[in-house]
Specification:
It contains 5 helices and 15 strands. It is 20% helix and 29% strand. By secondary structure, the chain is α+β, with helices and mostly antiparallel strands. Its EC number is 6.3.4.15. One of its GO terms (molecular function) is biotin--[biotin carboxyl-carrier protein] ligase activity. Keywords: Biotin, Ligase.
Length: 293
């Protein structure tokens, strides 16, 4: 897709006005706060890639927002795209140097809790979390993926990328079975207050987690994630690196952020990485699959 010319077509879609970097900075970038800079670009290949490239020279709290991503990536190097200004596509740079590196794996889960909390408040949409990094909404009684999170190490920190389908119509969905806030009945699809709400929520959860030294229990992050996780209590198949898979009931998220499966053999198997498929009760067919934002 060819991006619109920002100078000639700034208001070409009145239902999807552009974000104002100036207004967002005034609201979010404050002395002593987490967010130290915020830039909005018309189009970019990947906000994660661009921000990671500059991570060494940037302070913690840098935010990069794109009106359109042409090479958006998800886990397992999946590709994802959406029309310009139809969603929120952004990355943030975090440098929790006082937290042990082995606890940084909680950052994508922390981002999921932050987004779900914010969207419930600002969009009136209940957002469930599919382990480890998917955002689910309900459309016509069906659970659909409306967003995803990708965390990557960069220099001495982590870049966390977040993509949320906001105003996409059924015809605009990148793949069958995807969803959007609009399709889920959001009370608002104004991206400015939605982004402000998500970043404020992320700042609050990150602050509590960092203040606890990255302890997911003391910061209540583990409890909040489990409460909002749609994967727990379901029978799932985890497709692991190397072509292996394990099937069982998802019974917990442990202190390392791993999904714990109770298998038919009576073994509790922690899964730290993999592609998780929700299975229909009593069957081996797929119910909800990670579709890769």
């Amino acid at each position: 897709m060819t991006p619109p010319d920002a100078s000639e077509n700034r208001w070409s879609d009145l239902d999807r006005p552009p974000l104002s970097a100036l207004a967002l900075r005034r609201a979010l970038v404050r002395e002593g706060g987490l967010w130290t800079s915020l830039d909005v670009v018309p189009t970019v290949g990947s906000t994660n890639t661009d921000l990671a490239r500059r991570a060494k020279d940037l302070p913690e709290g840098a935010v990069l927002v794109a009106e359109e991503q042409t090479e958006g990536r998800g886990r397992l190097d999946r590709r994802w795209s959406a029309p310009a200004r139809s969603g929120l596509f952004f990355s943030v740079l975090l440098k929790p140097t006082e937290v042990p590196v082995e606890k940084w794996g909680w950052l994508p889960l922390l981002a999921g809790v932050s987004v779900a909390t914010a969207l419930s408040r600002s969009a009136g949409v209940d957002t469930a979390l599919k382990w480890p990094n998917d955002l689910l909404v309900t459309v016509g009684g069906e659970e659909r993926k409306a967003g995803g999170i990708l965390a990557e190490r960069a220099a001495d920190g982590v870049v966390v990328g977040i993509g949320i389908n906001v105003s996409l119509t059924e015809k605009e969905l990148p793949i069958p079975g995807a969803g959007s806030l609009a399709l889920a009945g959001a009370v608002s699809t104004d991206r400015d207050p939605l982004l402000r709400s998500v970043l404020r929520s992320l700042g609050q959860w990150y602050g509590a987690w960092r203040a606890s030294g990255g302890d997911p229990a003391a910061s209540r992050l583990q409890e909040a994630y489990a409460a909002g996780c749609a994967t727990l209590g379901r029978t799932v198949r985890a497709e692991l690196p190397g072509g292996r898979s394990v099937t069982g009931e998802a019974v917990a998220v442990d202190g390392h952020g791993r999904l714990v499966l109770a298998t038919a053999e009576g073994v509790q198997q922690p899964v730290g990485a993999g592609d998780v498929v929700h299975l229909r009760p009593g069957a081996s067919t797929e119910e909800t699959r990670d579709t890769g934002e």
